[in-house]
Amino acid sequence: MTERQRKFCYFCSEGESVEDAAEMAGFKNKGIAKKLLEKPEIQKEIERYKGNSGDVGIEEEIISFLTQAMRGQGSDDMRIRLRAAEMLSKRMKVFDKDNESENERRVLIVDDIP
């Protein structure tokens, strides 16, 4: 199994659509996603990733890959770079409403002068 196929499996196991997973893994062909899913070894790998969701080594590798993609080290395609940035921000919960750092930056103005 190639490195791109492993990344495809990981992205699929994280809930990405098969088309997005294929694009993020570096596949250029639009129809490859469905062909990949037909392979038994791909299906087994996706199930393995779903069972090992706490595997730190895999998570570090994917974060490293997304960071490289976001910086344009693998592709100059701006869509891929933006998608990588979006996935990293979701993973790190940068834009969550419950993010404490955002709450700390809010200013509350109370008009209590009589």
Low-confidence stretches: none
Structural class: mainly alpha
Largest sheet: none
Approximately how much beta-strand content do the residues carry?
A: under 5%
Instruction: Tell how many strands the DSSP assignment holds.
Output: 0
Distance between the termini: 73 Å
Number of helical stretches of at least 4 residues: 7
- What's the order of the H and E elements? HHHHHHH
Number of domains: 1
Instruction: Tell the overall outline.
Output: elongated
Radius of gyration: 19 Å
Oligomer: single chain
- Percent helix, as a range, is 55-70%
What is the residue-mean pLDDT, rounded to a whole number? 80
Q: What does this protein structure show overall?
A:
This protein is an all-alpha fold. It has one domain. About 65% of the residues lie in helices and about 0% in strands. The chain has seven helices and no strands. The chain has helices at about 5-15, 20-25, 30-40, 40-50, 55-70, 80-90, 100-105. The relative contact order is 0.11. The model has no long low-confidence stretch (mean pLDDT about 80).
Task: Please specify the SSE layout and strand pairing.
Layout: H1 3-13, H2 18-25, H3 32-38, H4 40-51, H5 56-70, H6 78-91, H7 100-105
Features of this protein?
64% helix; 0% strand; elongated; 114 residues; mainly alpha
Put the structure in a nutshell.
By secondary structure, the protein is mainly alpha-helical.
